[in-house]
Amino acid sequence: MTKSQANDMSTMRKLNTLLLLRTLYQVQTASRSDLTRLTDLSSSAVTSIVKDLLNKRLLIEKQNYQQRSVGRPRLPLAINSRCWYVLGLHLSGDNSVDLVSFNLQGEYINRIKLSFDSFAPAAVTKVISEGVATLSTKLEPTARLIGLGVSLSGVIAPQTGHCTYSERLNWHKIPLVSLLSEQIDLPIIIERDVNALALAEYMNLEKGEQKSSLAVLMVGNGLGLGLIINGQIYSGVQGGAGEISHILNFTDRDQLDKEQCYCGQLACVSQLISKKGISKQIAKLFPGKTGFAEQPLLWLQDRSKPGNGLSILNRVAVTTALLLKLITETYDPAQIIISSNFQFDRESQQKILNVYGDRLTLPVEFKKEVIFKNWSSFSWAWGAAAVVINNFLNSIDFWRNL
Ligand SMILES: [Zn+2]
User: Fold this and answer.
1) For position 268, what pLDDT does the model report?
2) Per-residue model confidence as pLDDT tens digits over 346-369
3) Are residues 19 and 127 in the same domain?
4) Which strands make up the sheet holding 155-156, listed edge to edge?
5) Are strands 59-61 and 77-79 parallel, antiparallel or unpaired?
6) What is residue 212's predicted lDDT score, i.e. its pLDDT?
7) What's the gap in Å between 245 CA and the centre of ligand 1?
8) How far apart are the CA of 380 and the centre of ligand 1, in A?
9) Whole-number mean pLDDT of the chain?
């Protein structure tokens, strides 16, 4: 903290307010005395901040609580799940996406469809700003918006929040925050989609149990790694951390692996385990067959006899396990989530975990708990909203607007 900040009582007050809100976010419900104990703030500070937050309708007192027989009733406090909302959307290169509103708990409220005819930045900005205006009218008249989160398939510069590069949108150095801010009178945060979803997963975990770090391996049409370290997104100096689609190529003797990736290498990791990559392998091995695109592993599992798709299943398991080894031995995170838009069947899951354990060079106690989760298209908007909620809970800059 700088000297001028330390002298600024309102800055101190804002920091204490954030501490109190974060604490309440974690424990969900707490009395004023719980908050005094948990935050180490004085009870008069807690009483005063709570009063402010109740006036702003950011907190509510839970009314149906058992009242004490002596003295004033001590109603427990919770973050208001109404009144304040966050908007989120995912720019993926799809022409139709949802703009979604969530409450401060990250719970879904409602949504509208946005249609993009073009991904020219000016056109995208126009569609989003019209969408924000429309969705705002669907909330109650007294509703207030905390901010808009946009998650994007591409690399985002950490300092400016501008899009450095997006292959899917064909963008190069697009100052999206500035463009949107000219049209939309809300705090706006842009984040790489994988990072945003990793943060949402982390915040979801944190409500139950404290973890210092989390690695989320996203397996979808492509591949990405989202890293949360000390509760914050780690995106690297230029935002390129976790771009793992082409970091490894496995050129084993299997002929199927010889297909060239668009990056020029043979058999990149994303070609082996992404939904698109597995589907391509199936199409090659089972010419003329259809119906595998949505659930390629389940489709294969039904037909997995030796020489008949088993090679693809093995390759998926071994490649995924090696990525888990790499993540573990590079970052040693508290937990790993494999988040996919298709199902890893039970047999594949078991095989991945076995190979992961076998290949780990570190002793067995370094093997992480691995959770398999499925995402929907909706999850990405949830991730975008989580980034806004996280900023709201951690950054006093954000509070200038409240
Ligand atoms: Zn490649």
Assistant:
1) 84
2) 999 999 999 999 999 999 999 999
3) no
4) 155-156, 163-166, 171-174
5) antiparallel
6) 84
7) 7
8) 24
9) 89
315 plus 367 within the same structural domain: yes
Q: State the distance from the centre of ligand 1 to the C-alpha of 261, rounded, in angstroms.
A: 4
Distance 69 CA to ligand 1 centre (A): 68
What CATH number should be reported for the domain holding residue 395? 3.30.420.40
Q: How far is the CA of 251 from the centre of ligand 1 (A)?
A: 12
- Distance (angstroms) between ligand 1 centre and the Cα of 50 equals 53
What distance in angstroms lies between residue 272's CA and the mean position of ligand 1's atoms?
Answer: 10
- Tell me: do 116 and 156 sit in the same domain: yes
218-250 pLDDT tens trace: 999 889 999 999 889 999 999 999 988 888 776
Residue 271 vs residues 220, 249, 329, 378: alpha-carbon distances, Å: 11, 9, 23, 25
pLDDT at residue 63 tops 90: no
Domains of the chain: total: 3
Distance 259 CA to ligand 1 centre (A): 10
How confident is the model over 245-276, as pLDDT tens digits? 888 776 555 555 567 788 877 778 888 899 99
Clarify whether residues 212 and 351 are in a common domain.
yes
Task: Indicate if 169 and 294 belong to the same structural domain.
Answer: no
pLDDT digit string (tens) for 174-200? Answer: 999 999 999 999 999 999 999 999 999
Ligand 1 center to 132 CA (angstroms):
37
pLDDT at 138 over 80: yes
Q: How far, in Å, from the CA of 397 to the mean position of ligand 1? A: 40
Range of the domain at 319: 205-376
CATH number assigned to the domain comprising residue 24: 1.10.10.10
Kindly give the distance from the C-alpha atom of residue 323 to the centroid of ligand 1, in angstroms, as a whole number.
15
How many other C-beta atoms are found inside a 10 Å radius of the C-beta of residue 89?
Answer: 26
Residues with CB under 5 A from ligand 1 (ion): 246, 261, 263, 265, 268
Measured in Å, residue 154 CA sits from the centre of ligand 1 at 16
Q: How far is the CA of 260 from the centre of ligand 1 (A)?
A: 8
